[in-house]
Amino acid sequence: MIRAYKFLMRPTVGQAQALGEMLRDHCSLYNGALQERRDAYRHVSKTSIKYGQQSAQLKDIRAFDPQRQGRWSFSSQQATLRRLDKAFAAFFRRVKAGQTPGYPRFRGVNRFDTVEFPKDGDGCRWDSTPHDPVTRVRLQGVGHVKVNQHRPVAGRVKTVSVKREGNRWYVILTAEQGDCEPLPPTGSVVGIDLGIANFLADSGGEFVPNPRHARAAAAKLEAAQQALSRCKRRSNRRGKTIRKIEDLHRKVRRQRLDHAHKAALGLVREHDFIAHEDLKIRNMLAAPAPKPDPDQPGVFLPNGAAAKAGLNRSISDAGWGVFLTILHAKAESAGREVIAVDPRNTSRECPECGHTAKENRPTQEKFHCVACGHRAHADTVGAINVLRAGLVRRDARQG
Question: Same structural domain for residues 198 and 169?
Answer without folding.
Answer: no
